[in-house]
Amino acid sequence: MLRQERLPPITVLEAYSRKERGGGWNMQIKILDRKTNELVIEVEGEGHTLCNLLESVLLEDEEVDFASYNISHPLVGRPVITVRTKGNKSPEAAVKEAVEKILQRGRELRKEFEKAFKSTK
């Protein structure tokens, strides 16, 4: 049986988001299972957009052996993300690094959009 554990109100993803955007969003993360090299979390308030992006960036990491997500029902399902590492890095560290990469890419994209919009005026 999976062990459920509720994280504090401000999770890793929320902390980074609040830092970047000056606010937060209604995301709740529950740890369903935690082992040395594997983490299974449930993400309430998100869908394919964030989960697919996170999965893709996690799989870029050579220390990540497996990353996947599943949404059991398209209307009411909560995404369950599974991350397994090869042993040199914890899955929590892999998720944190992936979130940092996503935010950095978002900042770079914003800069490029701002440059493009300035040149069209």
Describe this entry's structure for a reader.
- The structure is a single chain.
- This protein is α+β, with helices and mostly antiparallel strands and 121 residues long.
- It has one domain: RNA polymerase, RBP11-like subunit (Gyrase A, domain 2, 2-Layer Sandwich), CATH 3.30.1360.10.
- Helices cover 43% and strands 24% of the residues.
- It has helices at 12-21, 48-60, 91-119; strands spanning 5-6, 28-34, 38-44, 64-70, 80-85.
- Strands 1-2-3-5-4 form a 5-stranded antiparallel sheet.
- Strand 2 (28-34) and strand 3 (38-44) form a beta hairpin.
- Helix 1 runs parallel beside helix 3 (91-119) and helix 2 packs across helix 3 (91-119).
- It is globular and about 55 Å long.
Judging from the principal axes of the Cα atoms, what is the shape?
globular
CATH topology: Gyrase A, domain 2
H/I helix tally:
3
Q: Whole-Å distance between the termini?
A: 59 Å
The level of helicity is 40-55%
Radius of gyration: 16 Å
Strand order, largest beta sheet: 1-2-3-5-4
Strand/helix succession: EHEEHEEH
CATH classification class:
Alpha Beta
Overall domain count: 1
CATH architecture group name = 2-Layer Sandwich
Strand content: 15-25%
Strands, total number? 5
Uncertain residue segments = 7-11
Mean pLDDT: 83
CATH superfamily: RNA polymerase, RBP11-like subunit
Structural class: alpha+beta
Largest sheet: 5 strands, antiparallel
